[in-house]
Design goal:
about 190 residues; alpha+beta; two-stranded antiparallel ribbon; 3 helices; globular
Amino acid sequence: MKHILLYLIALMVLFTGPSFANGILEHTAIEALRVAKHSANGTMIEHGGMLVRHNSFVGPMYEYIQMPPGRFAGVTVVDMKLLGETDELIGTYHVHPCMNGYANSMFSQTDVITAIFSRVPEFMLDSCTGLVHEFDAKIDKIHDTGEDVRIDDGSPSGKEVHLPYGRIIGDIEETEPKHDAPKEMK
């Protein structure tokens, strides 16, 4: 009965929600990002995890696994040991908190590397705007969108890199004002 209920909820999510042309993967990512943002300290540090498909007696089920949050910036979004025998990793997700000096709307170098090596789309919530971005290395090119920014690499002037925006695929319809990072991050 539980599996049938989850299947019906997945169908409701698929056919309701914002007017973006999304499938069940994108809707699952948006819901996972909404939950991650509302986690304890979800507006102060990155939260995220894995998007998973597994087979059940009613057909494929789409779920998310939230990983333990990282220490301030950064969260591990892939841990294959957590997948069951019939589970398939189909995406990763994480929240960018709305903090001063933070590249909220862009995928970091680590985010892009994760998308490339995991071979699945990476979804990111810009908490400032509520917009959900997707970067899929099979479709998106790093320089198609984004900006050149200077990052701190320990050198006196920093290092210039290009960070992509990806594609906007949804909106959690919540915004947040910019705030300072926790004192422990400074």
